[in-house]
Amino acid sequence: MRLSRVDVSSTSVLSQRRWMSSESMNNVPFETNEAMTKVLEELDACRETGKWRQALKLLDRVDKDEALPALDPAMYERAIASCARMGKVEVLPGLLNNMLVDDLTPTSATIDFIIQAYLAKEHWGLIVQLASEATSMGVQLSPAAFNAIMEACGQVKDADSTMSIMTQLSEAGVQLSTDHYAASIRAAGMSRRPDTAMALFVQMEERDGLKGDSETFSQLIRAQTLTGNLEQALQSFASVAQRRLSLEEPIYTSTIDSLVSNGKFWQATCLFEQMLESGEKHPSVFCLGRAMLAYTGANRSQHAWACWKKIVEINEPNPVAMKYNKMLQGLTHAKDTQLAVEVFTHIQKLFNPTEIHQGAYTTAIRAYGRLGDTQKAVDLFDEYVDSCKETRRVSRYVGIYLALFNALSRDTVRDPALNTRDAKRAWRIMSQNVPVVLPPAYASLAGVFASSGEMKTLEELINHAERSWGATAEEIEEPEFDEDGNEVEAVAVFDGEDMDLGSDNDVLLFNGVISGLSKARDDQTANIEAYLQMMRTRGLPITDSIVRATTDACIRFENWKLLRKLMKMLDVDTLKNAEICAGDTVSKLLEVGNWGLGREWLIFCHRNGLHPPIRRKMELLREMVEQKSKEWRIAYALANETMSFRRLVQNNVDSVADAAEVCLNADHLDCVTKLFDAVAGHSSLRFFRNHQRQVQAGRDAMQPLKLNAEPVIVPLRMYKMAILALLRQSRSAGPGDDEWRMAKSERICRQMLEVHGKNLDGEALSMAISIKATAGDDDDVGALYETMRALNLKPNTYAQNAAIIAFSRQRRTDQVLAIRDELSADRNDNGEVKTVESNVAKSLLLSLALAHENDAFRDAVENLPGCTLDMAMNVMVSTNRAKDAIDYFDESASTEMFDALIDQLCKSDNPVLAATLVVKQARLKGLASVHPNRVKRVTNELIEKGDLVEAEKLLQLYLDGTNGLSLKQTPPYFQQHTLEMLLFIYGEFGHFNAMRAVFEKELLAFPLEVAHYEAAMEYCADSRDELAGAVASLKLFENLRTHGFVRPSGYSYLLTLQSCLRLERLEPSNASAVRSTGQVILADVQEHGFHKAVAAELAKQVASAIKQTAVTNQKVIRRINKKGEAENVGVIKPVELARIALFCHRHGTPMNAQLATDLLKLHQHLPAMISNELAFIKRSLEEGLGVVAAPGSRANSIPTKRVVKVKKTITSKTKKTPVVGLKTGPKRPRSKSYEAAIRAATDARWGAVLEPIVGDDE
Q1: Residue 367 is part of which domain span?
Q2: How far apart are CA 553 and CA 558, in angstroms?
Q3: Same domain flag for 1025 and 1009
Q4: Does some domain include residue 1183?
Q5: Fewer CB within 10 Å: N-end or C-end of the chain?
Q6: Contact 1130, 1109 (CB under 8 A)
Q7: SS3 content of the chain, % helix, strand, coil (to 5)
């Protein structure tokens, strides 16, 4: 049989980890019948039980028995799963080969099971081989299998297989993601093949259309850095910066480290700066250290110091000595010696001398030698030698000795004898530890002797060196270092003797020792801690007396740290009287005022089920109240212990009240109500119980009780605290919780009035007023407040606020004025009126405003501190008295109040008052204090209401610049709004000179568009005085063409030609050979290639004229369109359109047949001569004759209308509105400029023609 090729002789069963396949075993995509189902169930049972041999035999039986269904992938899948589960990897290749022989394709789950088995055995090569075969067959891989395959490719360093697998997956139509490519690039990097990694990255972007993300770039850079291709890695980082991706800090740090190690300091600094620019705000200490070395290598000392200061500022927790030692050794050859000294000083603060590597000492000694501080260098050498006496041997590295010798040789301050002595001592130490002394050591020492003037010693050293150089050096054993950079030393370990003197005797012994130490005059808590640790190590119990002695010593010498450790050492089950012992400790801590540690001990007791008795509970609670403590846990515990007695006295209840006050200070309101309920329900409070029975029996609640002893009652302050806690809780609770809390507070308040009716104070009655006010009972509020006034009790602010509101609702203005007088009479120690609480001030002002008590209102604002101007104006606005609010407005009003008042005035449809307020604010605080949006809103409202004069005055403030702000200092959007609004206002009033001045503004923050010129020229064309409007329009066009770079539109040219027509400057005169202004403008059109735009606009205007003539009384809205196109405006009359079209036709811009046809549609509005000429031109164009002059026509044969000064018939003129469609104001009276137009000089240049024309004002 074919399955006999599978080796099943092994008896070893190995289990392995498995992951779930992406394909369910129970939902196989094959057709099944009853026999198939039975076979699959048997295979599933084999897989679950691990009977892999039985599964193989079942496959063999299915293969041979024709009655059974044929083998399919599902059967193989379950058989392979059985073998893989038991770790039988040797049979898996045979099974897979049988599938291929049977022409069956493995399922994804089958590949998963095989990879699981290989992965458990770490058969990386087999995984790669299997993956290559599976992908070539088109088998879908699960994510787990894919990652395992990529890991295997990396382990065997097979980058070619990685590339082929990814290519096969892509060709098979698998939807690859950036995660797939990130794993494959990582595998290529593990294989040390950066070229393959780059090829995969290119395939991802070019072939699969995926954009590289942060992870793929990180893996690509890691692959390039790992193999030393730093230039390629930097190119990848450049791509990251261009794409604005954000990489993790470790990939930057590793690359910077590689660059520094390879001497590429400048590139490392650039990469570090790119990391900071990408958004990394908190680089690690190691990253900053490598950046510091990069900056020092690049001779950028200032930046290196900045990195070091950042390292110190971070204050890294749990620093590692190796990191800082490496950081300092990198500064060995740096020019900034002071930086090396600073780093070593910081290392000394962080680590013990035994943790500092000798290389760090070497660098520091060399740095101090360069700085001339020889004594410090010698001290560091001695410190290093002393640190080696017990924990490590002196280094055999000669560098530290050479550094010291160099420092001594540079010295110019110390006594030469000292330098000689130190040099000889260092030489002796070096000779004892360094096997072979090399020539550099002799040279360094010779320099020391020479600089010290020890000539005789120098000669002896030279002779000794010459003799030693001829000897054969022994082999030097390299020192070994551990992971922290310390030398590994041979340490002799002696086994100590175990002490077994008996548990009882040991405990007694340690008890006596610790007791004696606790009574010592000096601090022996360190020894006590050592003995406690020894007891714990030996498993000895800590007794009650030891705890007391330790507590006494720790409290005497304030060793709170040991007391915290004692809690961890203590086993309460071993104490004879744990509660008394713990209570003694807690009591002593509270007596010395260490509330925090006392709280920790209390929590420790409660966790262990202890209820420690605490001494001086009442005194402690009183002290906590006097100190305004917030230690509510301690107070609550003390109160509960106080109430644990069967019978309470009044002092106990007062102590509970003290505890409630501490809880109230800590804002734990639930604890306050719990304490009140507990103390009020205690059996000792017989007055409360008997009184409750009286109320239930219907008897008089105020009838005195016959008691043998003074009854215990709840203090008044505890009633008030309980009510206050419930009221505060009601504010933050939901609607359901608020109801029962208010009911409970009302019940407690009634009890308080009944119990303490004769001893009530102002605060108690104020709380009662607050409760009644919450319930909405204005009558009771007023009655209670009048009672307080009669009893001469001072209310709190809540009661005053509630009383003002209640009296105002009852229209009792006299009572409101009385409260105003009480507030005015309330003065402090300096005789000044006290500041009124804000809610009281608001209620008072609102009540006075509603009662129209204007004098009292103004008096309150001026004389009562707390009644601010902002409040007054808010009240005025809320009561629809906006004009009064503006009258009250002065320089003391806040910006928020100004904004709110503007908002209210605009909403109230009264923009004129809003404008008045803006002008007043500008005069008081300057125009800069007014936000442009406020002015924009006000001007829009003014234009909407037709108040153009007020809008112009308001906007004129910015043009004048006399209020501390000019228009150029405002935002661009506001400049645009201002100029467009002014264009509209000037156009409606006919102020042409002012309109032209708008376009002469320089350095505007927004660009002027041709639409602005078109709108202005439309206003000129639509003016009642046509001649003055035409002159102004030509000047505007001159400004358009001679100032700036605004591209003229076809519509602007038509408006200009219209002005020329009205001034009789369109056609040349018979008596002059000089070109007319119209000809000059048309030549400008042809010169700059605008003839198509003019022709298109002319056709558009004609079409618009046809529509306008068909629709009468059409409302025209002029808008500033940014595209430079006119939208259904009719400022050019049909006859003017026809004359302009004929003028263009005669002078180089011929019309087409369609335009002539459209113009003829307006024949009712055209003279007969113009209509005939248009008809002739139309026939000529239709017959293909081109531009032919009409019979008898000349350039000026068509008589133009004589321009004379006549008044227009007052008809319903088309209303012009700005963007928002606003109303117009009164029109400007007609100007007389006919003579000015006649005086226009005849010149070929149209700009010069316009110069002599003066405006109306001139």
Answers
A1: 352-467
A2: 8
A3: no
A4: yes
A5: C
A6: no
A7: 65, 0, 35
Amino acid letter, residue 87? G
1124 three-state secondary structure: coil
Give the end-to-end CA distance of the chain in Å, rounded to a whole number: 120
Which pLDDT tens digit goes with each residue over 881-934?
A: 777 777 777 777 777 777 777 887 787 777 888 888 888 877 878 888 888 888
Same domain, 1011 and 1047: no
Contact predicate 336/300, CB 8 Å: no
Angstrom distance (rounded) from CA 771 to CA 763:
12
Answer for the pair 888, 876: CB distance below 8 angstroms, yes or no.
yes
A 10 A CB-CB count for 175 gives 8
Q: Is the pTM of this model over 0.70?
A: no
In this structure, is residue 680 part of a structural domain? no
Q: CA triplet 408, 410, 414: central angle to 5 degrees?
A: 60
Q: Are residues 1201 and 1164 in the same domain?
A: yes
Rounded CA separation 1255/1142 (Å):
30
How large is the angle between the packed helices 632-642 and 669-680, nearest 10 degrees? Answer: 10
Q: Model confidence over 277-304: pLDDT tens digits?
A: 888 888 888 999 999 999 988 888 889 8
Name the token pair of 740: 């029962």
CA distances from residue 461 to 429, 453, 474, 515, 528 in whole angstroms, order as listed: 16, 13, 21, 63, 56
Q: How far is CA 447 from CA 364, 410, 454, in A?
A: 20, 9, 10
Q: Quick check: helix, strand or coil at residue 650?
A: helix
In angstroms, rounded to a whole number, what is the distance separating the alpha carbons of residues 320 and 351?
A: 9
| Cα 853 off chain centre by | 51
Angle between helices 230-242 and 249-261 (to 10 degrees): 140
Smallest Cα–Cα separation from 40: which of 4, 76, 85?
76
Q: CA 1186: distance to chain centroid? A: 72
Asked whether residue 476 is domain-assigned, the answer is: no
The reply to whether 187 and 123 lie within a common domain is no
Looking at the structure, do residues 1006 and 1062 belong to the same domain, yes or no? no
- Note the pLDDT of residue 833: 82
Start-end of H helices in 434-524? 439-452, 455-469, 503-518
Is the same domain home to 901 and 988?
A: yes
Contacts of 719 (CB under 8 A, 6+ apart): 676, 748, 749, 751, 752, 755, 756, 764
* Alpha-carbon gap, residue 50 to 43, rounded angstroms: 10
Q: How far apart are CA 1161 and CA 1103, in angstroms?
A: 10
- Give Rg (Cα) of the chain: 50
Q: What is the DSSP letter of 601?
A: H
The 10s digit of each residue's pLDDT in 816-872 is 888 888 787 788 878 788 888 888 888 888 888 788 787 888 788 877 888 877 788
Q: Which is nearest to 11 in space by CA: 58, 53, 42, 45?
A: 53
Query: Do 996 and 1124 belong together in one domain?
Result: no
Tell me the two tokens of residue 1198.
Answer: 């068509």
**Residues 1070 and 1094 both lie in one domain:** yes
Judge residue 483's burial from the number of C-beta atoms within 10 Å of its C-beta, 0-12 exposed, 13-18 middle, 19 or more buried: exposed
Cα torsion angle, 349, 351, 355, 360, sign: negative
Q: What are the structure tokens assigned to 744, written together?
A: 């409970």
Closest CA to 134 of 97, 105, 166, 173: 105
Considering 589, 624, 643, which residue would you say is the last residue of a domain? 589
- Number of domains the chain is built from: 6
CATH of the domain at 865: 1.25.40
Instruction: Evaluate if residue 496 carries a pLDDT over 70.
Output: no
Alpha helices in 157-300 (DSSP H): 159-171, 178-190, 194-202, 214-226, 230-242, 249-261, 265-277, 285-297
602 lies in some domain: no
Residue after which a domain boundary falls, among 216, 240, 264: 240
Give the total residue count for the chain.
Answer: 1258
**Alpha helices (runs of H) in 558-608, residue ranges in sequence order:** 560-569, 578-591, 595-607
CA pair distance 983, 994, nearest whole angstrom: 9
